[in-house]
Amino acid sequence: MCSPPCAHGGTCMRWNTCLCPSGWTGAGCHTAVCELPCANGGRCVGPGTCQCPSDYTGLQCLLPLCTPACQNGGRCVDVNKCTCVAGWQGARCQIEPVHCQKPCRNGGVCVGLNRCRCAKGFTGSLCETGVTTQCVPPCQHGATCSPHNTCTCPEGTAGLRCERLTCPVVTTEVSTARAVRQAFRESYVDRCGPLGVQLCTKYRMNQARVYLQAYRVGYKIQCPVKKNT
Question: Is 146 exposed, middle or buried (0-12, 13-18, 19+ CB in 10 A)?
């Protein structure tokens, strides 16, 4: 008889002697067995199961914990100690480095890790793209609206809005023809009279295709051709 009785499925073999199942030991089979010992103050609470202190985790309590956790790819290498990567700094790798591998363009400023703050009128990871907006007041004579509310004038124009013509305006004339059907009255000779022996002039309506001539007038800026010297 075993008193107290054997725990965790142990078998009482003789007076207060228990035969314990695998994973348990002790007089009454109350002590758990961990083949891999618990480290860093961990306690074996079940067969192969460690109860770790608050600063460690893992099967044998070998993995340190960082609270709060490391950020931005940082790795916890000891209790509350992070190793940071890619230039990040701080106790939890929370401080972003100011470093751009490729320089920001068009007046952009590097404000973080490969992160640009773009000047007004530009966008993109490197501020390489101009923002297309409508200029106010609008550009004239086919000019293109550029960043910062400025106009890029074509050849032959000038001014803030390309409103001034610097080359003569020439008139162009294009001749066009359009075919139409037009009715007309034609005469023909036919027999007539009571016996049909007389010849009479008769009239009938017919149609003919005629072409109407038209002209289309346009205007364009024509600058003199520059000669190579």
Answer: middle
